[in-house]
């Protein structure tokens, strides 16, 4: 994320796909202590190359759940709103 231009970083923080990718990569590889050919562990590589920190995993889970709840609430409100105004016409 550090290599993104400054004007695109806001999009990365609100994009649900970024949070999903962050969660998947971090939960699968964020605590792997196997050494790579370069001498660093897989967990160090994930943090250094992608900027994904294992200690952010709770925040990532919260963001995914909140985004899902937001989508469900918005769908429910939209359906109710349409039902209210379409039924009266």
From TrEMBL:
Keywords associated with the record: Signal
Top-level lineage group: Eukaryota
Signal peptide per UniProt: 1-20
Name of this chain's protein: Uncharacterized protein
Organism whose genome encodes this protein: Dillenia turbinata
